[in-house]
Amino acid sequence: MFERSVLQDVISRVEEPRRFIQVLVGPRQVGKTTLIKQLLAKTDIPHYFVSADDLFAADTTWLKRAWVKARILCQQEGKGSFLLVIDEVQKVPQWSETVKKEWDADSFSDVPVKVVLLGSSRLLLQKGLTESLAGRFEVHPITHWSFDEMRQAFGWSLGEYLYYGGYPGSASLIGDEQRWKDYVRESLVEPTLSRDILMMTRVDKPALLRRLFDIGCRYSSQILSLSKVQGELQETGNLTTLSGYLMLLQQAGLLSGLEKFAADIIRKRSSKPKFQVHNNALLSASQHLSYNSLHTRQEEWGRFAESAVGAHLINSGLKHRFQVYYWNMGHCEVDYVIEKEGVVVGIEVKSGQSSANRGLALFQQEFKPRGVFLVGTDGIPFESFLGMNPCALFHA
């Protein structure tokens, strides 16, 4: 079975002396539970695994019972340490307060129960972690699969990755495109919207959130003002509401609205968003374009390629802690700008015959970045870029 690189990081942390709660957070169906199964098979630490995902009404009492059972099993095993794994923990109301209480009680009594928490809602997990568990946890972002991972695990070509994206559970379905699209929409997107967002966060206009998601996927890698989106939605709701819903979609690992790179934070916050899916499967499943027709339409192929580059940057940014933006001035544009600790890099995506772009020169003149790079025509090949860690560009 294919093993992601993050597995070794988690194993090494779990096998350290008990110090921090390990938190694995990422979208649905990116392999969090599979990764934990691989971890449990590779470690000699006895364990107890529970999930709140299948319970109708998981509560703090259920969580406390699971913890008590882990302590009993730990005592029975007598091996010096024990591992408690709790999946979809954010679905337990007031989970963070209960985890803090039980963790601190074990720390005080020298009970060697180590804890791994899994969750599919970064927003809800992060809120609980920062409010109640400060100083007690380490986070491992489990992101969508990269081109390199899909190529190694399933033998995918670049074209297949641009179209079908990085959901490993859907790989066996690509021979039947309609079935694949149904799976993405009904088994991946719908549970995220209905169970991870709408059931656990106050959303006054759920139809508006769903429509915003649909439009954002169709326009992935394109800049649109929220007021224009509002008109497309035929909705008179507050623009702040749309911005808030876009943030929920981002925290669920589905869709981001990238900000324009600027020297000050106010100009960043007031910019038009550049819609960007976190997985190209969401772009493909939102329209009628087939995989075969993508290769014959140069303009569409270029948009899918740019969207895949943006998705790769977003997922890499979560793992390696850098920010992703875009930049434009009039008709001049730089597709993506990445920034880490004050170091700035510009990235332009080209799939046509010409690689000329005046925007790169203007961007370089105004911001003096560490470097500007072309991806595609006359630049870094798509296969190479989608298989690399973009952090390397900060040191190029």
Q: What letter string, H or E per element, gives the SSE order?
A: HEHEHEHEHEHHHHHHEHEHHHEEEHEH
Which radius of gyration do the C-alpha atoms yield? 22 Å
Residue stretches low in confidence (pLDDT < 50, at least 5 long) are none
> What characterizes the major β-sheet?
5 strands, parallel
Mean pLDDT: 90
Distance between the termini: 34 Å
* Outline: globular
Question: How would you describe this protein?
Answer:
This protein has 396 residues and is an alpha/beta fold. The protein has two domains: 6-141, 3-Layer(aba) Sandwich (Rossmann fold), CATH 3.40.50; 147-395, no CATH class. Helix content is 47%, strand content 17%. It has helices at 6-14, 32-42, 60-77, 95-109, 122-132, 147-154, 158-164, 177-198, 206-218, 226-233, 239-251, 265-269, 280-284, 291-294, 298-320, 358-367, 382-385, and strands at residues 21-25, 47-51, 82-87, 113-119, 137-141, 255-258, 274-277, 323-329, 332-340, 343-350, 371-376. It has a five-stranded parallel β-sheet with strand order 2-3-4-1-5, with helices on both faces. A four-stranded mixed β-sheet has the order 8-9-10-11, with helices on both faces. α9 (206-218) crosses α11 (239-251). The longest helix has 23 residues, at 298-320. The chain is globular, with a radius of gyration of 22 Å.
